[in-house]
Amino acid sequence: MNCSQIRSHLKDYLDDNIHPRLQAIITGHLSSCDGCSKELAFLKTYLPQAKDIGKIVAPPGFELRLRQKLPNPSQPSFPSRKWFLPLPAPVTAFVGILITAAVIFYFSKPYKLMEKEQLRKTPASASYKLPENRPAKKSSQKKQAPVADSIALSQEQAKPDITSSRTGAKEISRTVALTLSLWPVNYSDSGESAAKTRSQITVPELSNSTGQSATGEGSPRVFALEKSEKAESDAVYSVTNEIRGIVNSLGGKTATVKKNSAQLLIIKIQAQQYQQFVHAITKYGEVKKPYPKVNQNEQSIEIELGFQEGN
Amino acid sequence: MSKGISEIMAAPIEDHRLIAGFLNGDPESFNQLVLQYKNQVFNLCYRLLGDVGDAEDCAQEAFLKVYSGLKGFRFQSSFKTWLYRITVNTCKNKIASAEYRSRQNMIELDKPFLQKDDAVYREIEDNTNSPESLMIEKETASVILKAINSLPQHEKILIVLCDIEGNSYHEIAAITGLKLGTVKSKLARARHHLRNKLEGVI
After folding, report:
1. Is B118 part of a structural domain of the chain?
2. Residue A82 counted as domain residue
3. Which residues of B touch A (CB under 8 A)?
4. Which one of A79-88, A98-107, A183-192, A249-258 scores highest in mean pLDDT?
5. Which of B27, B39, B164 sits opposite A50 (nearest CB)?
């Protein structure tokens, strides 16, 4: 045995709490090892004094303060044990599953059916209005906008003039809270109506922003924003025109559509300009949800904006 | 002697009876457990933290954890070992907390520090409100305590559990989760460090 092994047994050796054979080995080692002998001498003095350091008692009122911190058994936390305990575990589990299923059913299927029904009843009524003071330019290269049949975005809108656009807009008479919540919509340019396209709103797939949507390979993504309840108000109209001007200044195109009494502004903008656009529109309000990532290789992004007038 | 052994043997049985009573809805059983162990738990906390206020906070937190965790007690181990494990872990968390560390780094103007051999000494010690002043009268014991406090945390825990609290190697292994051989070797190393610090005193 080496010194460190011997020293790990020294306390037991002192306490005489050791096998006689090991005791003999340690005694033999101590007779020849000065370091371990000194260690033993130290322990002989140190251990009794360490034990004498004394015990400190808890301060008065310790139990009282502890009792105040303990949860009161007379006020059980919800869900009450009394309410749940009489039920056997399988019954509790079954009831839990039923409640979960009901909640999921309520928030998913009926909602989707209701929305589809509404969309079916609402014809696609998208239309594009040119900014009032914008000189209408004819372009030889016309392109069908992929958003919907009824939305024809002309190439001339891609040449913006923010000044003329802004002068045509009404002045913002009061503060407008712009609630932006972007989410991607899988877009198909196979001739589906705008309303039907918008019904394909899905959860954002931020990492999958390569422009390869599920329904149309290589087709641009469409982002939808919340609809406005007071689309006809002056304030919303002013903001619409302001944003339209920003889009035009960045080389984008705009069109307006109405959906369920909400006015939606459909924007087609180059991917490279997207971040700049988002930065520009933040001055109209706080953007509460994170922006989707935009792949710079993507040719363009289409966005729908909706506004909600603040108080 | 035989009475002492019988008391030691009876302690786990009594503890288990109180735990069973608490689990059957008798809150007084938990109060009995607190009364039985409050001084030991507080003493352990105080030895590890070195401050009465922190020790009381930690001791109460440990009892609260025991209160909420007693339902999971499996009666396969000693309640004392289980309680000590919770207490040691609570103290470790306290020591690791940012608030505690920042407080340790603060130097009070009226109590300048002198650092010598990794030990922290105060030039002016005000022990009027400290339980230490009531309990430690011997100068040597005071120096030993300072030397123990200057040890690294893992060595300090072992020394306090073994040499001050008087737990056996087996109990310390159960409290700390270390193997028995590791406990022995680490304790031997910690005592060797103490010996170096206390050279000339002992």
Report:
1. no
2. no
3. 27, 31, 34-35, 38-43, 46, 52, 56, 59-60, 63-64, 67, 131-132, 135-136, 138, 140-141, 144-145, 148, 159, 162-164, 166, 181, 184-185, 187-189, 191-192, 194-195, 198, 202
4. A98-107
5. B164
Residue A199 lies in a domain: yes
More confident residue, A163 or A92: A92
Whether the pLDDT of residue A107 is over 90: the answer is no
- Domain span holding position A210: 125-305
CA atoms of B88 and B44, how far apart (whole Å): 8
Give residue-wise pLDDT tens across range B31-46: 889 999 999 999 999 9
- For A44-86, the pLDDT digits (tens) are 988 888 887 877 888 888 888 888 888 776 554 444 454 555 5
Please indicate, yes or no, if residue B157 is contained in any of the structural domains. Answer: yes
Q: Are B63 and A68 in contact (CB under 8 A)?
A: no
Query: How many other CB atoms sit within 10 Å of the CB of residue A159?
Result: 13
Angstrom distances, CA of residue B12 to CA of A199, B92, B106, B107? 68, 26, 43, 44
Domain that holds residue B130: 125-202
DSSP state of A54: -
Residues with Cβ < 8 Å from A193, sequence gap 6 or more? A123, A124, A148, A149, A150
Amino acid occupying residue B27: P
Q: Find all residues with CB under 8 Å of A27, minimum gap 6, and list them.
A: none
Same structural domain, B95 and B129: no
ipTM of the complex: 0.75
- Residue B116 placed within a domain: no
| Burial degree of B44 (CB within 10 A; 0-12, 13-18, 19+) | buried
Please determine, for residue B88, whether its predicted confidence score (pLDDT) is greater than 90. Answer: yes
Whether B95 maps to a domain, the answer reads yes
Q: Are residues A147 and A296 in the same domain?
A: yes
Q: What is the largest CA-CA distance in chain A?
A: 110
Name the band, by pLDDT with cuts 50, 70 and 90, for residue A292.
very low
Number of structural domains (chain B) is: 2
Last residue of a domain, one of B106, B133, B157: B106
Judge contact between B138 and B170, C-beta under 8 A: no
